[in-house]
């Protein structure tokens, strides 16, 4: 302490006063009504807390005000966790607010803790009581309010991840005095009807009062007694209720609950997607390989027109060779006849006696030549007939037709066509278009 005649500056006085207050008052709770509330551009909130006979200035700095789960307004009854201090610049006695809750929340937290300890002692939250969720649920039940935004989020997630799984809603209030009994009744109804393999108890975020229906014993016991596995998706990630401890599995949010109950189907869909892509890739490779093989065979395949051209060339070659052989034979026989005639003349044969023989030889030669010519003509006709059988035009003239698909390819097998395909028919005279009704 300084002597009484020591002169202090106002700044020093206020500093000592602040240190004295902060050193003698620990962090404590006070209650009162909010008044004179203002919000600064910096994000700090200034207000007064008052009761029937007194009031005190308060400040909640931005870092604390940002995490307050509701909007602070004048007239609200609150309980604030404060540090007693003094604002040195103005010498104002004030409370620095470190945390805040609505008035009466202390009793709610105490009730929460008592019920949690009671049910935990009974073994209601024991890990061995928890059941695994079905990997592939045939139907999913939801206990929630039809008007809840959380229900829409949950349904959207299920539609995206497992659209084929039926979803059954068991409607109930999720806030208010009758909500806990309604939740218990909805869970009992789901078990009695036995329509689903897993239950999701869902509600969006809110204050502890808003979520209180899930902190009551009746709803907790209904969840624990359910024969159907239960997933709790209540509030935000930081919200915990008695129902979360009683459930077989807790999800941080309703959307997270949808992801948990549909995880098996979602994984299967993703795996099927991968398999589908692999199958498409394999089929594409097979088709491309077969198309290349067809192209190779098409290059090696000789068309009927080319075969006819080759046969016609062979026939012309045979005709030329036949004419050449006939001329050669005729020339050879003539030469032989000339030599024989010359020999006869030299030997002075008896012409009267040889004349008849010469005529017979000439006639035999003529007959041989005619027979040879007939044989060659018959061979030519036979080759011509064979060539005519190979001619597609002759086949078409007998009533057959050539079928081509829309790409112009010749169709030789019904497996090349499908119902509804367009085709073009070529006949002996003219052509026509058609469509396939069925393929056998």
Describe what you observe in this structure.
- With 440 residues, the chain is α/β, with parallel strands linked by helices.
- It folds into four domains: 10-103, Nucleic acid-binding proteins (OB fold (Dihydrolipoamide Acetyltransferase, E2P)), CATH 2.40.50; 129-261, Response regulator (Rossmann fold); 304-390; 402-435, no CATH class.
- Helices cover 49% and strands 19% of the residues.
- The chain is built from twelve helices and 13 strands.
- The chain has helices at 10-24, 62-65, 105-121, 149-161, 179-193, 217-225, 242-246, 254-261, 263-300, 304-347, 351-390, 392-397; strands at 28-39, 45-50, 55-60, 77-87, 92-102, 140-144, 167-171, 198-203, 230-234, 249-250, 402-405, 422-426, 431-435.
- The strands form three sheets. The protein has a five-stranded mixed beta barrel. A five-stranded parallel beta sheet has the order 7-6-8-9-10. A three-stranded antiparallel beta sheet has the order 11-12-13, with no helix packed on it.
- β6 (140-144), α4 (149-161) and β7 (167-171) form a beta-alpha-beta unit.
- The model has no long low-confidence stretch (mean pLDDT 86).
């Amino acid at each position: 302490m300084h002597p009484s005649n020591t002169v202090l500056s106002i700044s020093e006085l206020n500093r000592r006063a602040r240190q004295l207050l902060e050193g003698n008052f620990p962090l404590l709770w006070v209650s009162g009504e909010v008044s004179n509330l203002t919000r600064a551009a910096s994000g700090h909130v200034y207000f007064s807390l008052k009761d029937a006979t007194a009031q005190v200035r308060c400040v909640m700095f931005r870092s604390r005000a940002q995490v307050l789960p509701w909007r602070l307004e004048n007239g609200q009854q609150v309980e604030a966790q404060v540090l007693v201090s003094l604002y040195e610049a103005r010498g104002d006695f004030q409370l620095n607010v470190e945390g805040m809750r609505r008035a009466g929340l202390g009793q709610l937290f105490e009730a929460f803790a008592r019920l949690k300890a009671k049910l935990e002692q009974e073994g209601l939250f024991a890990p061995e009581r928890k059941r695994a969720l079905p990997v592939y649920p045939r139907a999913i039940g939801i206990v929630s309010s039809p008007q809840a935004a959380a229900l829409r989020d949950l349904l959207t997630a299920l539609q995206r991840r497992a659209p084929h799984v039926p979803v059954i809603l068991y409607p109930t209030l999720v806030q208010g005095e009758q909500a806990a009994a309604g939740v218990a009744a909805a869970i009992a109804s789901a078990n009695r009807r036995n329509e689903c393999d897993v239950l999701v108890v869902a509600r969006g975020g809110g204050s502890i009062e808003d979520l209180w229906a899930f902190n009551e014993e009746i709803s907790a016991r209904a969840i624990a007694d359910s024969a159907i596995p239960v997933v709790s998706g209540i509030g935000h990630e930081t919200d915990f209720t008695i129902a979360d401890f009683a459930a077989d599995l807790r999800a941080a949010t309703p959307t997270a609950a949808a992801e948990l109950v549909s995880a098996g189907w979602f994984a299967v869909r993703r795996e099927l997607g991968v398999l589908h892509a692999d199958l498409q890739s394999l089929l594409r490779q097979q088709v491309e390989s077969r198309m290349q093989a067809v192209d190779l065979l098409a290059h090696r395949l000789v068309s009927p027109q080319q075969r006819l051209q080759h046969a016609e060339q062979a026939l012309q070659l045979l005709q030329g060779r036949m004419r050449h052989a006939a001329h050669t034979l005729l020339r050879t026989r003539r030469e032989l006849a000339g030599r024989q005639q010359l020999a006869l003349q030299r030997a002075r044969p008896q012409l009267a006696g040889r004349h008849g023989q010469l005529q017979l030889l000439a006639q035999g030669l003529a007959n041989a030549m005619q027979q040879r010519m007939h044989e060659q003509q018959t061979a030519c006709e036979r080759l011509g007939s064979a060539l005519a059988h190979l001619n597609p035009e002759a086949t078409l003239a007998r009533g057959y037709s050539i079928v081509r698909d829309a790409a112009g390819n010749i169709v030789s097998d019904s497996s090349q066509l499908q119902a509804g395909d367009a085709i073009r028919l070529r006949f002996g005279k003219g052509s026509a278009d058609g469509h396939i009704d069925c393929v056998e």
